[in-house]
Design a protein that fits this description.
It is built from 31 helices and four strands. The protein has helices at residues 19-30, 36-41, 53-58, 70-96, 100-104, 168-191, 198-208, 210-213, 218-227, 234-248, 252-261, 266-281, 287-302, 306-322, 340-364, 411-432, 441-461, 480-497, 512-537, 544-565, 573-578, 580-596, 603-616, 631-634, 639-646, 651-654, 658-661, 671-679, 691-695, 709-715, 720-726; strands at residues 131-133, 139-141, 390-391, 407-408. The chain is globular and about 105 Å long. InterPro entries: Transcr_Regulatory_Elem (IPR051615), XnlR_reg_dom (IPR007219), Zn2-C6_fun-type_DNA-bd_sf (IPR036864), Zn2Cys6_DnaBD (IPR001138).
Length: 753
């Protein structure tokens, strides 16, 4: 008689049964299968026939699925082989046809939301062989030449095979899940208690930085901040805090805490750099690491530490390559279980890097690194929960009785439009401003034609709630990110047309009047919008992109003044009077840039270039007047922070010691009246001048839009002689750079955070 098998105890001491019963039960279970309901619930099935005890108790339909027979399996294998042969033959036929059509197909410049950056007909699913998990579980990719693949893995077959387009239902389902999760996380975030100054600095980042640059996906960051999840790190938090310090210092309580406990905020920057270097040394490559590097790059750039800024950004761009973020995570992953949130974050981060790549290349006069391709993530953001969220200028204290009106943030739309604009500007950088090679005439002309049309299409299609018309400015500025979007559009328009001003008359494009008008109109629009921003939020709330826009606008007004000087190289008193419109606008830019050096020391090099050119013309400027203190050398006056806390007006910031310097501004005409109109009353009281009148000097009235080019140029103060002289001049540099080449890292003023 066989020995009864041993039965493991179930933990309750009831694991022993008689041998006969046990043998019978074991025999029954060997011949049975778990039913489908028990299999799905991953619970133990009794295997009773025709219905198991669990399904009987739950009143479920108990279904047993038997293993397929051997003959059925063989038929399936034969069918699979037949289908694989058909697919192989169809791919061979496709490869035998001319392939030039695919290679020569231009990148679509259409911004129709239905395309999402890919050609119609391209599927949203499939496999991309190089995107895999490594031995540590980190997503990465390696090409055919790497150590990680054998030649047999690449048989020459097409790997980007089109698949049926994804239906709208799954997209809408993912959008609904992401939006619901975002609102849930915002509710939990409001309930959380984050101590000061961290809460203030985080709110500053969400208000003034996040909507435009979108470095961080807020719902995932705030959730994982509580859970210590994968989308949060202490390194990233320190980088956010360090980057927000310069805004946070305008709040008295925050400033006192920073000075008392955090070395004026410098502690956060030191911790962020130390920790990110430690992560890199340990081979850690995560999404928070990329985001940290982007924030450090932006902060170092504004401080004038161009070497550090360029290297931090370069590491970030290399890291998104290493993590496969440059590849559409939805179309080119095999069996990697990406969640809806994972895909959303990776898409956003790619386009944030793409945008920052163009911006830092613009600032420093370098070639862009990241390029869009057919495998890049689409310009598609499913989570639009912050689109209609109310935006308010966080940290500003307006005078009694003054409130910023409720306005929707439109953050998602703004970021999407900024991504589209950066794609256009990428072409301008490559084909008109390549620092490593000479762009030839035909290349520049082709770029001008294509990108001028693309910019026009972009502007015409820009939503009304994102568009700021310089001819009809609102009383108060729209949100900061909307202002920056519009100023960058005008900046890119100037950079597209400015090279054509110095073209020889025999060149293919001799329509210099049109190019000059485009430049002057956009430059005037920039300073009008910037002045509106300053009067609404204060000049020290502006990001570096606005500083750059003002600098590019000043280059056009400087060109007007230089052209008026002609061959003599000096402006007479009469010529200075004739050039009052350009001089006043240029004076506005110089004053703005002189103040912006307080928070963005890199602007000092730009301001120095302009002052140097004006000194050659014999024009004394506010920046070169005696008694003017260079903020880049001495640092801003700490008392300025106390005053700025009480008012959002820009007038006091531009009018420090104005009366003392008023007499030295010879050659600029009616300076005081102009300053009262543009900057507010000199007694620092709220200006009683209606906003519309204050802006009239900078506006381009609609009645001039249909005039002849000559009349429109005359409206901007451009005479025939000035127009003729423009072609003989070269504009100043389009990049900020560092004039002295000295790095400020480690020695930056505490106010320059």
């Amino acid at each position: 008689m066989p020995t009864a098998p041993k039965i493991a105890s179930n933990g309750n001491g009831n694991g022993h049964h008689n041998a006969t019963t046990t043998s019978s039960a074991r025999a029954t279970k060997k011949s049975a299968f778990s039913c489908e309901p028990c299999r799905r619930r991953k619970v133990k099935c009794g295997g009773e026939q025709p219905i198991c005890s669990r399904c009987l108790a739950r009143n479920d339909a108990c279904v047993y699925k038997l293993n397929p027979t051997l003959s059925y399996t063989q038929r399936l294998e034969e069918r699979i082989k037949e289908l694989e042969d058909q697919l192989s033959r169809s791919q061979s036929q496709a490869l035998s046809q001319p392939s030039q059509q695919a290679s020569e197909r231009p990148v679509s410049t259409s911004f129709d939301g239905s395309h999402h950056g890919h050609e119609p007909g391209e599927g949203l699913t499939g496999t991309f062989r190089e995107l895999k998990l490594d031995e540590r579980g980190v997503l990465t990719y390696h090409g055919a030449t790497s150590f990680f693949h054998l030649p047999s893995e690449y048989n020459g077959q097409e790997i980007d095979a089109p698949s049926p387009p994804l239906s709208e239902d799954p997209v809408n389902g993912r959008r609904e899940r992401l939006v619901n999760n975002a609102w849930q996380q915002r509710a939990l975030e409001d309930l959380s208690e984050i101590p000061e100054p961290f809460q203030y600095l985080l709110n500053t980042h969400w208000c003034w930085i996040q909507p435009l640059f979108n470095f961080i996906y807020r719902p995932a960051f705030t959730r994982d901040m509580q859970l210590l999840g994968q989308y949060y790190s202490h390194t990233l938090l320190n980088a956010i805090l360090s980057h927000s310090v310069r805004w946070g210092r305008w709040d008295k309580n925050t400033r006192e805490i920073l000075e008392r406990e955090y070395d004026g905020g410098a502690v956060f920057g030191r911790h962020a750099r130390t920790m990110v270097f430690d992560e890199i040394a340990r081979g850690v490559a995560t999404i928070p690491t990329v985001q940290t590097l982007l924030l450090l790059s932006a902060q170092e750039c504004s401080q004038g530490n161009t070497s550090q800024a360029w290297m931090y950004s370069g590491m970030a761009f290399r890291m998104i390559d290493h993590l496969g973020i440059c590849v559409d995570s939805q179309r080119y992953t095999d069996d990697i279980p990406f969640s809806d949130e994972d895909i959303e974050i990776r898409r956003r981060l790619f386009w944030s890097c793409y945008f920052w790549d163009k911006i830092i290349s613009l600032y420093l006069g370098r070639s862009p690194s990241l390029q869009q391709s057919t495998v890049s993530p689409p310009q598609l953001m499913l989570d639009d929960s912050n689109e209609n969220e109310m935006w308010a200028p966080f940290g500003l204290a307006y005078p009694d009785g003054v409130k910023y009106p409720p306005i929707a943030a439109h953050s998602t739309s703004c970021f999407m439009r900024m991504c589209q604009l950066s794609v256009i500007f990428n072409q301008i950088l490559i084909h008109m401003y390549d620092p490593l090679r000479q762009n030839h005439e035909a290349e520049m002309q082709e770029c001008l034609v294509k990108q001028e049309a693309a910019l026009k299409e972009w502007w015409d299609g820009l939503e009304a709630f994102l568009k700021i018309e310089a001819s009809s400015l609102p009383p108060l500025s729209p949100p900061s990110h909307v202002v920056t979007l519009n100023c960058l559009y005008h900046t890119f328009n100037i950079l597209l047309h400015r090279p054509m001003l110095s073209r020889d008359r025999s060149s293919a494009d001799s329509n210099r009047a049109k190019h000059l008008l485009e430049c002057v109109s956009s430059a005037t629009s920039i300073i009008a919008i910037f002045d509106l921003f300053c009067r609404s939020f204060g000049i020290y709330r502006s990001v570096l992109s606005l500083s750059y826009s003002v600098y590019i606008a000043s280059s056009i007004f400087l060109l007007q003044v230089q052209a008026a000087a002609g061959m003599s190289g000096m402006l007479t008193e009469e010529e200075q009077q004739q050039q009052q419109p350009a001089l006043r606008k240029l004076d506005f830019c110089i004053r703005a840039l002189s103040r912006l050096k307080d928070i963005n020391p890199i602007v000092g090099s730009a301001c120095g270039l302009i002052l140097r050119e004006l000194s050659k013309l014999g024009i004394q400027t506010p920046g070169s007047a005696s008694g003017f203190q260079d903020p880049a050398r001495h640092g801003p006056n700490p008392s300025t922070y106390n005053h700025h806390q009480q008012t959002a007006s820009v007038s006091s910031e531009f009018q420090t010691d104005y009366r003392a310097r008023q007499g030295s501004f010879s050659g600029f005409g009616h300076r005081l009246s102009h300053h009262e109109i543009m900057m507010g009353n000199t007694d620092e009281s709220p200006s009683r001048t209606p906003p519309g009148e204050r802006q009239a000097f900078f506006q381009c009235p609609d009645r001039f839009k249909n005039d002849r080019l000559e009349n429109r140029l005359q409206h901007h103060g451009i005479s025939d002689q000035v127009f003729e002289a423009v072609s003989s001049l070269q504009p100043i540099s389009a990049s900020f750079g560092n004039m002295t080449g000295q790095q400020q890292h480690g020695q930056s003023h505490p106010f320059q955070a």
